[in-house]
Each structure stands twice: as C-alpha cells, then as structure tokens.
C-alpha cells in the first residue's frame, strides 16, 4: 500500500530506498514561504542506523508488512541464540549481531517478541522492564538515598548498570531495557 508524507506516524515501518525503516520521530513543517514538508528520524531495521530524512509532497513509499511472534529464549549456541516459538514450538537460531541490543538483558526462559519481514528475522524486542539479580557491586551505604550519584553494578547477564548507593549484591532489581536504567527493587 503506497502512502505519502501525511500518513507518517511514530512506530510505522516503511520501505524506502530499498530498505526497511521504522519512523522514530516526525514533524510537519509549514514554512511561511514555500511548500510544507515533513522532517523525520528513521531507523534502518537491518543495520540499526538512524537517519534524518525530509519528505516533500508527492513522495510515496510502501508500508512494510512487519509481523512479531512471541518466542522464548532457550540457550546460546556458537555465535547465536536459540529461540522457540511459543505457539508452534519451532526453534530458530538468531545470530548475535541481529539481536545485539537485546543481549545485555536476555535470560534463559525469557519471552521476547521476534520481529519479522516475510521470512527475514529483523531482531528481538525485550519486555520494557526486566528483573535481574545483581552479581557484583560495592557494599551498600546505610542511609543512602536514591537521589545520590549511584555506583556501578554487574547483573546476572553480565551488563553493567548504575544503581543507587543503597543497593547490595544479591538483590533483584528492575531494569528499563530501552536505556539500561535502574527502575527499582523487584
């Protein structure tokens, strides 16, 4: 289905310049002189690159048919990860470079959403927050508050995040998977 610049919205996936792009942000601009246009920020779903693109009236592109399937992470294998479709029990091996952003917070048994374009797997979407156990950090400081500068902590997946000074080793915390920030205790 061909769409134009007025049909853009956040989260929409389009086929543009022979690639797949997700609209991260867009802004309609109506200058006092000249025609209106749309300034947009697009993310390439195959490479992860983010580009700023200006669309003019008359620019047409196709809306991409992207599907997501719920899958459960099973285990690591060579340079990839094995996932199982929760509906069909079919197993799929995804290369680490396809899901690099998800690896920091991925645990065995975790359910994720695999994004697909036809039969091509584009990546994995984690839940917005995940509970993870802290395996290594400095001892907590009594009387510390959440507004302090924080300290580094390593969680069970190996990722390093910043946590408040009162958090101790062995505690389970909630992490925002989009930016890797501490959200609270589990």
TrEMBL record:
Entries under Gene3D superfamilies matching the protein: 2.30.30.30, Nucleic acid-binding proteins
Keywords attached to this entry: Cytoplasm, Elongation factor, Protein biosynthesis
Keyword Cytoplasm attributed: yes
Chain ranges of the Translation elongation factor P/YeiP central domain: 68-122
Sequence ranges assigned to domain Elongation factor P C-terminal in this UniProt record: 130-185
Domain of life: Bacteria
Cross-referenced Pfam families: EFP (PF01132), EFP_N (PF08207), Elong-fact-P_C (PF09285)
One Gene Ontology term of the molecular function aspect: translation elongation factor activity
InterPro entries registered for this protein in UniProt: Elong-fact-P_C (IPR015365), NA-bd_OB-fold (IPR012340), Rib_uL2_dom2 (IPR014722), Transl_elong_fac_P/YeiP (IPR020599), Transl_elong_KOW-like (IPR013185), Transl_elong_P/YeiP_cen (IPR001059), Transl_elong_P/YeiP_CS (IPR013852), Transl_elongation_fac_P (IPR011768)
Compartment(s) of residence: Cytoplasm
Pathway linked to the protein: Protein biosynthesis; polypeptide chain elongation
SUPFAM superfamilies: Nucleic acid-binding proteins, Translation proteins SH3-like domain
Its job: Involved in peptide bond synthesis. Stimulates efficient translation and peptide-bond synthesis on native or reconstituted 70S ribosomes in vitro. Probably functions indirectly by altering the affinity of the ribosome for aminoacyl-tRNA, thus increasing their reactivity as acceptors for peptidyl transferase.
Protein family per UniProt: Belongs to the elongation factor P family.
Full protein name: Elongation factor P
């Amino acid at each position: 289905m061909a769409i134009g610049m007025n049909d853009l919205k956040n989260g929409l996936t389009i086929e543009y310049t022979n690639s797949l792009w997700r609209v991260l942000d867009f802004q309609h601009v109506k200058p006092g002189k000249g025609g209106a246009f749309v300034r947009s920020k697009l993310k390439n779903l195959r490479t992860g690159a983010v580009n700023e693109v200006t669309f003019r009236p008359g620019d047409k592109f196709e809306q991409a048919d992207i599907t997501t399937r719920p899958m459960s992470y099973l285990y690591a294998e060579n340079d990839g990860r094995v996932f199982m479709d929760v509906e069909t029990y079919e197993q799929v091996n995804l290369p680490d470079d396809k899901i690099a952003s998800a690896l920091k917070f991925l645990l065995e048994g975790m359910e994720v959403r695999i994004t697909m374009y036809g039969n091509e797997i584009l990546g994995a979407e984690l839940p917005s927050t995940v509970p993870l156990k802290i395996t290594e950090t400095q001892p907590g400081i009594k009387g510390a508050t959440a507004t302090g500068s924080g300290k580094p902590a390593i969680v069970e997946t190996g990722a390093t995040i910043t946590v408040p000074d009162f958090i101790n080793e062995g505690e389970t915390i909630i992490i925002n998977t989009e930016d890797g920030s501490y959200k609270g205790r589990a």
